[in-house]
Amino acid sequence: GPAVLGASVFQLNQLMDIALASYFIENEGAIPALRFAHRLIQLPTGIIGVALSTTILPALSALIRSGKSDQSATEVVEAVGFALFLTLPAAIGFIFLGPWIIHLLFHGGEWTVYSTYLTWTALQSYAIGIPVYSCNKILTSSFYAYQDTKTPVKILFFTITVNLISNLILIHWLEQGGLALSTAISSTLNFVLLNLALKKKMGHLPYKQLFHSLARLMPAIISLVGLLLVVEYLWPYPLVNFETSSLPEVSYGQAVLVVSVGVGVGAIFYLLIAHLSKADQIRIFTDAVRRKLKQK
Q1: Which residues of the chain have pLDDT under 50?
Q2: 109: left (phi over 0), alpha (psi -120 to 50) or beta
Q3: Cβ atoms within 10 A of the Cβ of 46, count?
Q4: CB 3.0–4.6 Å: which of 148, 183, 220, 235 could bond 274 by disulfide?
């Protein structure tokens, strides 16, 4: 029904990407590259976006029924803020560690560093949109709390049209990377339009508070980018943008090391700096951890 359709913008865009790739891109590796990149993106967006949108729906419905529109607007913005707190580092991680993550998960058999390059060209563009993919699920759920399934669908059809147009433009220059970039662009447009429509429905959305809390998160974001730039400098991945008989070999052990250092140290570093800078979202995160530990 409309509810399922309204929440499926990313999936529908991906189906369009694959259909266009099969028709316009001669390289046979383009379609597997899009599919593997999409699988990787689904991990943070699926876990974070679905979890938060499922959690927020009952609370929002109860607040709306009791006429507490101010509280419901605050609830939505806080959920978006927490989604950004979790998805921004995920996006940064994929952008900087993408080739190593792809190599770690998929390398072997027919898979070469050239296969990694093809998948990476799609992944880096998809990764730009990770925060909005998750936030779109939250915003769409907010409409369902008002029992409004039509507005997200109307916005969906408009953004899919924009995605098709940008696909046809970018595919000739960036191939599968252009298709993935179009998905990120149309999903960002979807985010903006959902916000505008929800603001009209709720009266206001306190995004000023969110911008203040994200400003306190910036030191953690900048520190994470700096750390991953160092990792990338110390262990550059040998990306090869053409198929050749003498492709460089990359050891599996090195991929394990780089991803472990980048993800493990990066996560600790990010949470520590966020805690020191007193980011609002870290309080929610630490409270949830404390509750879990008490239950045990």
Answers
A1: 1, 3
A2: left
A3: 14
A4: 220
